[in-house]
Structure formats: structure tokens, C-alpha cells
Design brief:
Belongs to the glycosyl hydrolase 51 family. The chain is α/β, with parallel strands linked by helices and about 500 residues long. The chain has helices spanning about 75-80, 95-100, 135-145, 170-185, 190-195, 220-235, 265-270, 305-320, 355-360, and strands at about 5-10, 15-20, 90, 120-125, 130, 150-155, 210, 240-245, 260-265, 285-295, 325-330, 335, 345-350, 355, 370-375, 385-395, 400-410, 415-420, 435-440, 460, 470-475, 475-485. It is about 20% helix and about 25% strand.
């Protein structure tokens, strides 16, 4: 409430919003456009009054008028996501969903409805206040705008320091089922009507729910999980439920559609994990590697060598796509003014951004979803620092089909390779193929605001492509050969 007259100048036109004590007896929402006559990356908003008194303000925000799909996300940042062609969006995060204490967990019901009525909460997992303007609805909307499947990580009664016993978990179970109704329910349902009032009468496509965040070791997790699983399946039998327990614990009495895996390792260890799923039983639920990242001294703020190690790991996931459903790096974004974790894929501040080497590495894998995997054999004498994979994929632009061969060279040695392609129903065209290389002058090179593409892919044509050809692979590099195929069907190589 405002106890004295408040003047808020509207730069759309000369003049001001004026109001006195009677007009502002209760909380009043004021919304208007501000136009700037110049750019200033260090600007700030000031609200002033000409009279002495007490002014109460809440939920003050300045947003750009032109956002991604008109839904509030910065165009430059959301476009970086869209350019990766993501197939799923996992939210609201791991520890963020839990909180250090349950009172500061992500409670979805408090993050929907009019923004100015959301109470907000302390994100004690990462140490800042959030007004929850980025809430459950906005996450679902972003996934829809990106054409990605939303993967909702629900709070299952556990925080980092607290846990709700199974005997009293029922209200939280109902809360999660209500959340699914918010996303998927018709406009005549209790929570579906709330979504409709927010401007989205059509249901969102929510097909994945993850129960908790790597909490299988906690005392009540398995008992609580059973309650959530039974209630969700009873109301929405088609939803895929993800367990925090590993595959060995899943059975008819402890069912799951998928199981969650987190992988954090040094670059050398991550490179070795290219074979992590090679011996996984081929039956039963598949894995979602929902968090993976190179950490440690050579990870820096996002180095080339860390990106190459993650690329090798992803090559291993491609080879084991029959037992791995999907994978995502973590964390995705970091504000350069409030770094709590390194490395991250995308760095930003109030006016600029750049992708770390691992962001650019992901571009080499964005055509993998829906592609056909082909067995490969690599023979390099006395050198174990290289992995490779091959897929065929179709360009959505012109429907041309390519054979993509990816080679990760994790070592300091340049290698000459002979590529031989056999078993394809269609041949390789002599022109139209391309080579893309991610490398730099040193393995610890990083990108920055000053050099945003110091480590970035370089594209060049492949002259005289054919079924058998010699190529050179640079040290510390990720190389992709996209070989254009003749317009006919293919089988294997």
C-alpha cells in the first residue's frame, strides 16, 4: 500500500501515473512500458516520490518487451537452446527442487497464477531469492515452445536436510497428482481451469515425471516412491515415471519406466566412461542420464578438454541407445555475476552471452535423436585416446540424408585415418559433404565475453567424398564428417 502520493513516469508519452492515498488503499498493480533513448548496460530502475512518506513496493520487475515466442524468456538465451534442437527439458532442477529445507523446496502450486500473487521463496540450495516468475507454468511453456518433452522433477518429501516419513506422505502425493492435472487436465478440472485462466486452455504434453533427485539412499525414499508411483499411475497410466534408484533395484514390486543416472567426473574419467553402459542388461527400464558434467581442475570455467571428454561419453551413449533413453548436461546456464558452479554450458549477464566449448560440442549430437545408429570399428595402433560413432540422419530442410561419422581425439597426437564405408544401400555423393571440427590451440582453452568463439566449430567442405578415403584428425579435437548420400534407402555400415 502507498501512504503518500506516488509518481511513476510513463515514457510512452509525457506525464505520469498519479495517485493518492485513497486510490492505493490496497495493493495495486501498475504496469507500463519504458522506452530508452540509448543503450546502457549498467542502467538501473529508480522509483521516486516528491513527498515524504512510506512507500511499500512488492514484485518489482523490468522485462524486455520482445521475448522468445512472447513468453518472457530472453530471445538470445532461449534461441541458444532452440539451436540445439532439444528433445526434452528437465525442470526445475535437482537440489533446487529439494531445497536445503522443505520450506524452501520448489512448491509448484505457489509458482502458478498471476505473477504478482506468487509468494516467492528462498532458493537456499544455491543462495538467492526467487520471485517464482519462472514457475511451473513457464517451464511447461518453454518446453512447448522448444518442441521438447517436459520432464518434471517432483519434490517427494525430501530436502537435503529433511525427509517426510511414508506414513504422512499422502498430502504431498496428492499435490503432485494435482500438478499433473494442472499440466494435463481439461478446462473444467480444478487445476486445469487455473492453467486455462493463465492463457493456455489446451493441456500441455507432460509424459515424464521424475520422483525425487538421486535420493535412493535416503531412509523413506523407496516407501515414498511406491506411494507416488501408485497414485500417478492410477490417475495417468501413460505417464513415464523415473526412479532415483539404479537399475538393479527395479523389479515387479518396485517398478519404474526409467531410472535416473548422474555422472560427474574428471575429464580422464569421463573419457573412460564411453563404455559405461556396454555391459548393461538389454531388458528392463532404460536410463535417463539427466545430469552429466566434467568437474575438477582441468574443467575450469569450461575448457576444450572437458568438452571432448563429455563428447566421448555421449558417443558411448549413442552406441548404447537401446538402454539409454536420453541425456542432458548440467548445469545449463550460469549468470556470470553469481557463479556458484563451473563449468556450465551457457554463460550470460544482463546483456550478453556465450557458449562454452561443451555447448558447441552438443551441436555435433543434435541430429542424433531419431537417427539410425551404425556399428563402427576403429583400428589405431598403440593409441587409445580416440572413440568414434556413425549415424545416418535426414536434414529437415531438404530431406537429404547424411552419414555422420564423429571422431573424438582426446590425446595430443594427430592421427591419419582411413575411412571405409560398407553395407549402405545408397552411395556417397562426391560433392555436398562437409567436415566440422571443434578444437583450439591448447586443451585448456576457454571461451569468454571477450572471445566468445575462441573454441567453436569450424565448417569446411569435403572434396571428393567417397566410400573409402583418408582423413586427418587433429589432436584434442572433435571432428564430424557429414557425408551426403545418394537419394536411396540405406541399411548399415
Amino acid at each position: 500500500m502507498l501512504h503518500y502520493c506516488l509518481h511513476i513516469y510513463n515514457l510512452d508519452s509525457p506525464g505520469a501515473f498519479r495517485g493518492g492515498k485513497k486510490q492505493f488503499t490496497n495493493w495495486t498493480k501498475i504496469q507500463f512500458r519504458l522506452y530508452s533513448s540509448q543503450n546502457n548496460t549498467n542502467s538501473r530502475l529508480q522509483i521516486t516520490t516528491t513527498k515524504t512518506g512510506v512507500v511499500w513496493l512488492d514484485q518489482v520487475s523490468v522485462m524486455p518487451s520482445d521475448t522468445y515466442m512472447g513468453h518472457g524468456f530472453r530471445k538470445d538465451l532461449a534461441s541458444m537452446l532452440a539451436n540445439l534442437k532439444p528433445q526434452f527439458l528437465k525442470f526445475p532442477g535437482g537440489n533446487y527442487a529439494m531445497g536445503q529445507y522443505l520450506r524452501n523446496a520448489f512448491h509448484w502450486g505457489e509458482t502458478v497464477g498471476p505473477w504478482e500473487e506468487r509468494p516467492g521463496h528462498v532458493n537456499d540450495a544455491w543462495g538467492y531469492w526467487t520471485d517464482d516468475g519462472l514457475g511451473f507454468f513457464e517451464f511447461l511453456q518453454l518446453a512447448e515452445d522448444l518442441g521438447a518433452s517436459p520432464v518434471w522433477v517432483v519434490n517427494d518429501g525430501a530436502s537435503i536436510n529433511e525427509e517426510v516419513p511414508t506414513a504422512i506422505i499422502a498430502s504431498l502425493v496428492k499435490d503432485v497428482v494435482d500438478g499433473i492435472e494442472f499440466a494435463r487436465g481439461g478446462v473444467n478440472t480444478t487445476w486445469g481451469s487455473v492453467r486455462a485462466a493463465m492463457g493456455h486452455p489446451q493441456p500441455f504434453k507432460l509424459d515424464y515425471v521424475s520422483i525425487g533427485n538421486q535420493e535412493c539412499w535416503m531412509l523413506y525414499y523407496r516407501g515414498n516412491y511406491q506411494k507416488f508411483y501408485s497414485a500417478i499411475k492410477a490417475a495417468y497410466p501413460d505417464i513415464n515415471i523415473i526412479s532415483s534408484c539404479d537399475k538393479s533395484t527395479i523389479s515387479a514390486s518396485n517398478p519404474a519406466d526409467l531410472y535416473d543416472v548422474h555422472v560427474y567426473a574428471s575429464s580422464a574419467n569421463m573419457f573412460s566412461r564411453t563404455s559405461m553402459f556396454d555391459n548393461t542388461p538389454r531388458s528392463g527400464p532404460k536410463a535417463i542420464v539427466s545430469e552429466y558434467a566434467v568437474t575438477g581442475n582441468d574443467a575450469g570455467k569450461g575448457t576444450l578438454v572437458a568438452a571432448l571428454a563429455e563428447a566421448a561419453f555421449l558417443v558411448g551413449l549413442e552406441k548404447n541407445s537401446d538402454v539409454v533413453e536420453m541425456a542432458s548436461c548440467a548445469p545449463l546456464f550460469v549468470n556470470d555475476n553469481d557463479r556458484k558452479w563451473s563449468p556450465d554450458a551457457i554463460v550470460f549477464n544482463s546483456w550478453q552471452h556465450y557458449g562454452c566449448p561443451n555447448y558447441w560440442m552438443l551441436h555435433f549430437f543434435k541430429d542424433s535423436s531419431g537417427a539410425t545408429f551404425h556399428p563402427t570399428t576403429m583400428q589405431v595402433s598403440n593409441y587409445d585416446q580416440m572413440v568414434a560413432s556413425a549415424i545416418t540422419w535426414q536434414s529437415p530442410k531438404d530431406k537429404s540424408t547424411y552419414l555422420k561419422i564423429k571422431v573424438v581425439n582426446f590425446g595430443s597426437k594427430a592421427v591419419d585415418l582411413n575411412i571405409t564405408v560398407t553395407g549402405l544401400e545408397s552411395g556417397i555423393k562426391s560433392s555436398g559433404s562437409k567436415k566440422t571440427v571443434l578444437t583450439s590451440g591448447a586443451p585448456l582453452d576457454e571461451n569468454s565475453f571477450e572471445q566468445p568463439e575462441k573454441v567453436a566449430p569450424v565448417l569446411s567442405p569435403v572434396a571428393d567424398a567417397k566410400q573409402q578415403m583418408g582423413v586427418s584428425v587433429s589432436p584434442y579435437s572433435l571432428t564430424s564428417f557429414d557425408l551426403l548420400l545418394e537419394p536411396s534407402k540405406h541399411s548399415a555400415i
